[in-house]
Amino acid sequence: MEHALNFPRDMAQSTLEKNAVILVTGATGMVGGSLVRALRDHGFSRIVSPPRAELNLCETSSVETYFQRHRPEYVFLLAAKVGGIAANIADPVGFLADNLQMTVNGLAACQRFGVKKTLLLGSSCIYPCACPQPMREEYLLTGPPEPTNEGYALAKIAALKLAAYYHRQYGMQIVCPMPCNIYGTGDHFDLQRSHVLSSLVRRFCDACANGLDAVTLWGTGTARREFMHVDDVVAGMLFLMDRKNAPDIVNLGTGVDVSIRQLAEKISQASGFQGIINWDATKPDGMARKCLDCSQLTTLGFTAQVNLDLGIERTIVEYKYLKDRGKIAA
Ligand SMILES: NC(=O)c1ccc[n+]([C@@H]2O[C@H](COP(=O)([O-])OP(=O)(O)OC[C@H]3O[C@@H](n4cnc5c(N)ncnc54)[C@H](OP(=O)(O)O)[C@@H]3O)[C@@H](O)[C@H]2O)c1
Prior knowledge:
Blueprint: E1 22-24, H1 30-41, E2 47-48, H2 60-70, E3 74-77, H3 85-90, H4 92-112, E4 117-120, H5 150-170, E5 174-175, E6 177-179, E7 181-183, H6 196-209, E8 214-218, E9 224-229, H7 230-243, E10 250-252, E11 257-259, H8 260-271, E12 276-280, E13 289-290, H9 295-300, H10 308-324
Parallel strand pairs: 1-2, 1-3, 3-4, 4-5, 6-10, 7-9, 8-12, 9-13
Antiparallel strand pairs: 9-11
Helix pairs in contact: 1-7, 2-4, 4-5, 6-8, 6-10, 8-10
The protein binds NADP nicotinamide-adenine-dinucleotide phosphate (NAP).
């Protein structure tokens, strides 16, 4: 299904040369896939976006061989093992070890093969569990991360530190945006590993289709989260790629949060669900509030364009489109 990507920004002035070799890792995923489409739409013609079978970032030899062969000039390190609370609790080893390995291999190759500029995507999970809200960039490492996704958070924090060391020791140009929760085109709607917004879209759309009169959701619904549409995340990454050279982190979000209860009600209404919502308070809520302070980003001149209501409507349309074509796994 095609959607016009949200790109009001003028890419004609981009510092990325149109004929440069640009490597996007994680391109089978939501963010990487959207970035590749955006780059193509803007006339970048030499994009390499290998699937994991061709470039497995956990394997040093695979990364070495790939960089040797393709010699990328700009690299977007987006690949990661990503998942919701349940997936993080079930596989903390994988979330820490795989994510660490991918960054260690990816950054080492960027340095060794003289990549001009690298973007390393972080996450708002890097901030401490008891972080003052909204979360400012300088709150990094002022306390321990949220226990339910500690492995993922530690891997992202180590990645940022490694990027900073590469910048200091080798002069590498690295950009490190810290996005909030991302949703939208290309999300996978897999109930075991999906994120909150896409899993709620699936739950409510399926409840409607199956005539259910109640949906039970994890937690109390009081936790507050910030959501950014993937088109805005991609636009923000390209914006920062043009303006930053050093790995001092920049929050990438809308600066607006909602409670999970409010989010569920919005999605319930937009999907046409008429039943009731039950909350299973025996399940964890995760951090009480996660909202980014985006003043650095807005001062640089970037603001998000897709508001949450519109983004939810688009995601519901996309989910139904994929489901009707048998492209949603059971
Ligand atoms: N989604 C969010 O809410 C969110 C929020 C903050 C930050 N982020 C960050 O944004 C980035 C992209 O996330 P996403 O939501 O697009 O995730 P996603 O849809 O799960 O995509 C992850 C991508 O990483 C690839 N990958 C995983 N392990 C790999 C490996 N060993 N070698 C090569 N590729 C591998 C996956 O390939 P396969 O198809 O083979 O699995 C997939 O293409 C990640 O760095 C994530 O930490 C995401």
